[in-house]
């Protein structure tokens, strides 16, 4: 290989490795979604946050996180105001604007929540006919039949909290959310005795870390995936899973 080609390759490798070598800060954005990532007593916490912070610590990188509404998270990454998004579904159409770390952070199970005093059993799509279902703007629901069905109406709410508030006031019939996230939010709001969910899932998906398309972040994506795989084999990872397994009812 000619000398100038070797020099170019070496320069590119140094560029990719410089991010980790300098101990820089990775600037991420996300929308609060307990128990995956949220604020408690003024401190950021959550399963995906704790896992990501530990993996980045092992790579010598600090994590800086900002909470934004979901659509603003996507805009911040698009405009270069953030290095990445913490906790996002991997969609083919998103690959043009972001680089997904190959190893997923967590698994999610999408279910339908209902008010205990007005349950709507769900076993098949036909059970949802003429109902009003609360959804969150900008969020992805991976079951295509549910996503495109005209059997029911969809009503957006600005936050997940607002969706549950509408549910217990019977302004919507059902609310779609991740099972763990919906349970945690119900606990935070003191609603575990007023809200439950249908055990049949709408579908399953995975949450990822997505980064900007940038040469110095491309190597980080590979390093993060490799270190995350190692971490998942350790007892510390299993302990984190157990820690966030069940919500605590915070009702006074």
From TrEMBL:
Does the record's keyword annotation contain Mitochondrion? no
Q: Which residues form a coiled coil?
A: none
What keyword terms does UniProt attach to this protein?
Signal
Tell me the first and last residues of the signal peptide: 1-20
- What's the domain of life for this entry? Bacteria
In the UniProt record, does the keyword Transferase occur? no
Enumerate the PANTHER family for this protein: L-CYSTINE-BINDING PROTEIN TCYJ (PTHR35936:SF35), MEMBRANE-BOUND LYTIC MUREIN TRANSGLYCOSYLASE F (PTHR35936)
Family membership noted in the UniProt record = Belongs to the bacterial solute-binding protein 3 family.
Q: Under which name does UniProt file this protein?
A: Amino acid ABC transporter substrate-binding protein
């Amino acid at each position: 290989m000619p000398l100038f080609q070797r020099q170019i390759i070496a320069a590119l490798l140094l560029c990719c490795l410089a991010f980790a070598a300098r101990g820089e800060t990775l600037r991420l954005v996300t929308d609060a979604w307990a128990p995956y990532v949220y604020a408690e007593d003024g401190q950021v916490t959550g399963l995906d946050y704790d896992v990501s912070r530990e993996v980045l610590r092992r790579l010598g990188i600090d994590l800086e996180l900002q909470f934004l509404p979901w659509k603003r998270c996507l805009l911040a990454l698009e405009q270069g105001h953030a290095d990445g998004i913490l906790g996002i579904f991997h969609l083919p159409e998103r690959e043009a604007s972001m680089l997904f770390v190959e190893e997923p952070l967590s698994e999610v199970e999408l279910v339908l929540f209902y008010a205990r005093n007005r349950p709507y059993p769900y076993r098949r799509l036909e059970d949802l006919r003429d109902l009003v279902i609360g959804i969150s703007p900008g969020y992805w629901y991976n079951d295509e039949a549910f996503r495109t069905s005209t059997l029911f109406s969809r009503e957006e709410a600005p936050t997940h909290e607002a969706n549950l508030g509408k549910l217990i006031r019977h302004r919507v019939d059902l609310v779609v959310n991740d099972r763990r996230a919906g349970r945690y939010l119900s606990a935070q709001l003191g609603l575990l005795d007023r809200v439950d969910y249908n055990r049949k899932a709408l579908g399953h998906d995975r949450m990822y870390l997505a980064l900007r398309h940038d040469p110095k972040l491309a190597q980080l994506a590979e390093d993060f995936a490799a270190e995350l795989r190692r971490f998942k084999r350790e007892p510390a990872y299993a302990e984190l899973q157990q820690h966030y397994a069940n919500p605590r009812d915070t009702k006074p």
